[in-house]
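Quiz preparation item.
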């Protein structure tokens, strides 16, 4: 009986790797916290680069749903992690400091494959290859989900024959910790960015007001700020910035925006800088319902705001000779 209990509730004599050898058991166990045996419910096709794999914990002694993650290859718009309804709470995201662009919350992780790999992977003309991990139950440390995503991406690049394939040792997670708390917004330095202010016209005669913000580290190559406003249904705007060449190339490749967000690429002597903003639905409701301002003038103001953000962030980095 003791042997059965050990089998049902631990990984005794279980496999050492998962997802066609892409993931070590220790990494899987770190992402799937708790007790129970780790099993692979959906395995990838070993002959395909398009890795898709599902791994879950199971136990006969726990009645509640057990954690399970799905790691998969996707083609998406380049700005999707920064501007979409899927990736909420971006202000609480851990971002990779170096290497390939990547980020994770306690439920999801993403990694953008390098531009040198795009021609190796068939996709729509404006689509960009990503590897994502989604946790279906519970939560996990963002760094653990990011580690799973980086290792899976390494396997995708190897199978696709990409020229840049990092060694296993380089896949170690170096991610900035997500900010733990929101803080009150300084109107003269919104999102901790000197020179960046929020125009009164976009507060719509007091229907929204500056409240709090949550910002990732300004020292990292990618930066996110979640700006919370006082108003009906919690209006919010997320700002994002990156000087990673793969992010810039992905945004350029995607063509004209078909989302509610705004995007700009700032060209400077030191390189190019992506900046974007994403207003949530409650904020857009205010934009569309305001009787004193036309929708087009409000969208123009949002475009000007993202340009101001890019300029302020470039100045904070000490970049010079900038222009869109």
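Solution:
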């Amino acid at each position: 009986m003791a042997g059965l209990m050990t089998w049902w509730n631990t990984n005794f004599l279980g496999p050492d790797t998962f997802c066609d050898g892409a993931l070590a058991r220790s990494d899987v166990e770190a992402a799937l916290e708790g007790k129970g045996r780790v099993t692979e419910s959906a395995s990838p096709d070993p002959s395909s680069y398009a890795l898709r794999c599902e791994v879950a914990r199971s136990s006969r002694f726990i009645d509640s749903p057990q954690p399970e993650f799905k790691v998969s290859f996707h083609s998406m718009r380049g700005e999707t992690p920064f501007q979409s309804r899927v990736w909420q709470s971006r202000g609480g995201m851990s971002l990779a400091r170096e290497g390939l662009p990547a980020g994770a919350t306690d439920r999801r992780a993403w990694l953008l494959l390098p531009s040198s790999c795009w021609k190796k992977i068939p996709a729509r003309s404006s689509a960009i290859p990503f590897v994502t991990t989604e946790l279906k139950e519970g939560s996990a440390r963002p760094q653990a989900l990011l580690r799973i995503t980086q290792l899976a991406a390494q396997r995708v690049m190897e199978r696709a024959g990409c020229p840049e394939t990092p060694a296993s040792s380089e896949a170690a997670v170096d991610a900035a910790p997500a900010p733990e708390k929101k803080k009150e917004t300084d109107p003269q330095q919104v999102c901790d960015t000197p020179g960046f202010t929020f125009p009164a016209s976009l507060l719509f005669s007091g229907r929204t007001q500056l409240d709090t913000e949550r910002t990732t580290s300004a020292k990292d190559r990618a930066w996110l700020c979640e700006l919370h406003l006082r108003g009906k249904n919690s209006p919010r705007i997320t700002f994002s910035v990156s000087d990673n060449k793969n992010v810039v190339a992905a945004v350029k490749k995607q063509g004209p925006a078909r989302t509610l967000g705004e995007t700009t690429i700032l060209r400077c002597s030191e390189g190019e800088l992506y900046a974007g903003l994403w207003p949530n639905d409650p904020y857009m409701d205010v934009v569309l319902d305001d009787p004193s301002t036309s929708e087009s003038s409000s969208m123009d103001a949002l475009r000007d705001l993202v340009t101001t953000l890019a300029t302020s962030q470039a100045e904070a980095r000490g970049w010079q000779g900038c222009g869109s």
